[in-house]
Amino acid sequence: GQNIDQPTEMTATEGAIVQINCTYQTSGFNGLFWYQQHAGEAPTFLSYNVLDGLEEKGRFSSFLSRSKGYSYLLLKELQMKDSASYLCAVRDKGDSWGKLQFGAGTQVVVTP
Amino acid sequence: KAGVTQTPRYLIKTRGQQVTLSCSPISGHRSVSWYQQTPGQGLQFLFEYFSETQRNKGNFPGRFSGRQFSNSRSEMNVSTLELGDSALYLCASSLVLGESSYEQYFGPGTRLTVT
Asked: Is A45 on the interface with B (CB under 8 A)?
């Protein structure tokens, strides 16, 4: 199984940059996902990393280092609507496609 | 393209009763996974279905069961409900091509309250 750790909460100002770290321990690794979840809503997919390096998608970027068991999600030019919980999830190599292990989530609060 | 749909959206049941939740995946998606989300435990994997077969099961008691139909729609059932089963139940579907799978898309969830 996996141990997935991410900070509980982060606060940042509108227009700033925030980096959410995620560390994981796994017996095998087959991909890391980031999801955004607004209060009372379903998680929405943000990014997927399976190889080392940086994936950029507009204001959001995600980085992976498999040797360090480490990923981060970078949110640039923060907007008020980015206030949400950000979930890191890992797929184990021995698991089927549809089984993801989720971290507890990082609540990002964007202030004016 | 329509997203993942779940019915009902809200449900209130009494301890000891049973409940069935339904999930319709995105058209063309054959993999359906179910998760339970609670404030204390976060998102926890329940089970996954692909081509009407259960491919994986999480660490939940046998009271939790599911199935998938030939049109990829899925249902999950919880029997002998307990207060601790109160949670948001999320269904997610993903596209599978050959041996590759892609990101999971979540439905809006069913909010189950057990009294």
From this structure: yes
